[in-house]
Design brief:
Elements (H helix, E strand, L loop, with lengths): L1 E2 L6 H8 L19 H8 L5 H12 L4 H8 L4 H10 L2 E3 L1 H7 L5 E10 L9 E8 L2 E8 L4 E7 L6 E7 L10 E9 L12 E10 L1
Parallel strand pairs: 1-9, 2-3, 7-9
Antiparallel strand pairs: 3-6, 3-8, 4-5, 6-7, 8-9
């Protein structure tokens, strides 16, 4: 999970994004008016996952006005423009996410997180892949084995949506945040089933 400070101006955005990539990206040059996948991956922190790279881009540009945002997006390489169209995240409140979010889609959700205690009665499960040679199978594990889990509260309706990030010592404060990630499936028993069988795997966040 990475904290993002959104760009305030087109100049700052282009200066950071049009960066020439890493030293071994010989085909890219800084400040050439073209933002390549290699350059975006450098700041996003992901080498080849276009979906996660586009999430970073959207979180970074979210506070720019329409015209400023357009100026940056026109600088994307054709490859990135295609990825942007494919992986453009939905921007939702927690209550909207409960009803509209789809598994494997990208989303940006705003709310106040409350940490769910792993010793609580909630025992949701997630599917993880296990590779053995050329064979990949899936197994279910408790969500708390892999993630810190939060209930993200909607300010207007008090409805909650589950979000989670890889387990770490850094916990989210109970303040208004904007978080971005990928929607994942959640398995629950009928007895304790929450309003939604999905959650947001958080990759980026911004305190508001």
């Amino acid at each position: 999970m990475k904290k993002i400070i959104p760009y305030k101006t087109t100049t700052n955005a282009l200066a950071t994004l049009d960066n020439g990539g890493r030293f071994y990206n010989l085909a890219t040059k800084a400040n050439d008016g073209n933002i390549s996948s290699a350059e975006l991956s450098k700041v996003a922190g992901f080498f080849s996952d276009k979906q996660k790279m586009i999430l970073y881009l959207e979180m970074s540009l979210i506070e720019l006005d329409k015209e400023s945002r357009k100026k940056v997006l026109t600088k994307l390489s054709q490859n990135l423009k295609s990825a942007h169209s494919k992986y453009l995240p939905q921007i939702m409140t927690p209550s909207e996410a409960v009803r509209r979010a789809k598994v494997s889609s990208s989303a940006i959700v705003t709310g106040i997180p409350k940490l769910v205690d792993s010793k609580s009665e909630f025992t949701g499960f997630i599917m993880i892949p296990i590779s053995t040679g050329k064979t990949t199978t899936f197994t279910m594990i408790p969500i708390f084995d892999q993630y810190d889990v939060y209930e993200l509260r909607d300010n207007e309706t008090s409805e909650e949506f589950l979000v989670a990030h890889n387990r770490s010592s850094r916990k989210l404060d109970q303040i208004l945040i904007r978080c971005a990630g990928v929607i994942k499936e959640l398995r629950q028993s009928k007895k304790e089933k929450k309003a939604s069988n999905i959650f947001l795997e958080m990759l980026y966040y911004t305190p508001l």
